[in-house]
Predict the 3D structure of the following.
Amino acid sequence: MNLCIVGAGYVGLTTAAVFAELGHTVDCVDRDEDKIRRLNGGDIPIYEPGLSELVEQNRKLGRLFFKTDVEQALRMNDVIMIAVGTPSGQDGSADLVYVRSVLSAIADTLSRYKIIIMKSTVPPGTGEWARQFLLDRGVAPELFDIVSNPEFLREGTAIYDTFHPDRIVIGASNPDAADQVRSLYYGIDAAVLITGRTEAEFIKYGSNAFLATKLSFINELARVCDAFGADITKVAAGVGMDNRIGSRFLQAGIGYGGSCLPKDVAALIAAAAAKEQDLTLLKAVAGVNHTQIDVYLRKLSSMIGRLNQTAHVAVWGATFKENTDDIRSSQAIALMEALTKQDCLVTAYDPLVAPSLQGVAWKSSALEAVKDADALIVATGWEEFVHCDWEEVKRLMKGDVVLDGRNVLNQADIRKAGLRYAGVGRP
Ligand SMILES: NC(=O)c1ccc[n+]([C@@H]2O[C@H](COP(=O)([O-])OP(=O)(O)OC[C@H]3O[C@@H](n4cnc5c(N)ncnc54)[C@H](O)[C@@H]3O)[C@@H](O)[C@H]2O)c1
Ligand SMILES: O=c1ccn([C@@H]2O[C@H](COP(=O)(O)OP(=O)(O)O[C@H]3O[C@H](CO)[C@@H](O)[C@H](O)[C@H]3O)[C@@H](O)[C@H]2O)c(=O)[nH]1
């Protein structure tokens, strides 16, 4: 099948590479000229394990193309997938400005039947709104179908997730259009769920909202475990053994971040509010996440006796989780901002990124970052931090406190090196 994917970001680029690998011919278009230039020069603008090889292979095979001329690509292809960003607006609602701009380009170019697949995460009702948008722009109703096909990949494992999804959700009002979209996934062994468009849009928000709920639940329980001197990792292991609950997404930490969970929880709350529904549970989920950093900074403060300009805190990790270069809504960044707000001296290191942050001195290695520090916080669970030389850390640090913000470290190794260990909900 010939396909045009609009947006060459984490989702568009990964999906383009995987569909090309499945044998389709894919035009991946983005209006960001620099991004497309880099892609055409063999340089992948994001860090995603396995993506570079897949892109290169399919470019060489003549199945994957990167272009900036959106209109031309829209004219040339009869299957169009929208994978542009849907960031949070001021009030938390999803800002559909990029989606609208793609729809506008589609309206300008559409002269024969097209299937328009909404891959971007959009609020319930957006498919219907998009249909009306095109009709209002004078496009004849028989010239298009809009199909919702939400994406569930995780950054860091995006290629694996796209080849091995738990399910493929296709929301369509025309069964023939749903079948066409299903045939795009030929070669992927996964359950396919065909629903109405609005239900598909809800499934995406419902999934992310549930994942966020699981995380805030375990993070709140971790606070109580802390108070009782119990270990949340052991509690989570036992709770997760119940198949109805499941063991995944129960790792307590300094909170969830990334470009999706915080944004999609906020967007669902806003979408509900527009229909006069108050999502009290989800508001609490966001609230727990919002205060999680403060809770553990208080713990740190009690261990080193102060959090002010005389405190030197080293932070390991800046990305919102390991194996990605994405810092959107990263709790690690929020933590550094909270520390600098208290005038602490902050030295930091991340294996992939060093974003400019006022008051943060970036170092070129993990060990360099801990030199003379009173305390170390591990804010992202990079493998490199798990396997570091704790004897050397102890030798370089002035103080002896290690706060494991992701519960990924081996406490015994740290204590053996003469350091004091504190985790999230761990005694
Ligand atoms: N990142 C994830 O892990 C993930 C997973 C599932 C779903 N989603 C959803 O997928 C969507 C895309 O997310 P992302 O992380 O890939 O975003 P991103 O910001 O990485 O990429 C979006 C791309 O779209 C391009 N773009 C914007 N407007 C355009 C236009 N009019 N024409 C051409 N290109 C345009 C931008 O230049 C950018 O390169 C969002 O709705 C997000 O919620 C993201
Ligand atoms: O047990 C856990 C699991 C995750 N996290 C944190 O939660 C955040 C989100 O992690 P994850 O969900 O793995 O990252 P994303 O790549 O943002 O993926 C989520 O958001 C995507 C965009 O919508 C969806 O497609 C995915 O299914 C959904 O998992 C990160 O800060 C993690 O550190 C924890 O603290 N504990």
Observations:
- The radius of gyration is 23 Å.
- The chain has a mean pLDDT of 97.
